[in-house]
Amino acid sequence: xxxxxxxxxxxxxxxxxxxxxxxxxxxxxxxxxxxxxxxxxxxxxxxxxxxxxxxxxxxxxxxxxxxxxxxxxxxxxxxxxxxxxxxxxxxxxxxxxxxxxx
Length: 102
Known about the structure:
alpha+beta, extended, 4 strands, 102 residues
């Protein structure tokens, strides 16, 4: 009997992460910009009462991937809220930047 492979089956992705990256970086501000061919997300940490922040990480990606990321974030926030309750994001800040901006 011949064994048939499932053409829709995808190989398992093996992800590696070093110790420093695994610890993560806390950010409380994201700046988002884009061109016709890419999106740029800059993640920063801004301390209260300061007017200066440093970019801690920059992610550059394609529009197609950003659309997929947007969908995945939406689904995960919905799962989070179903389990833990609604997230109160409040109103956008009037003076000190914090959160996500375009």
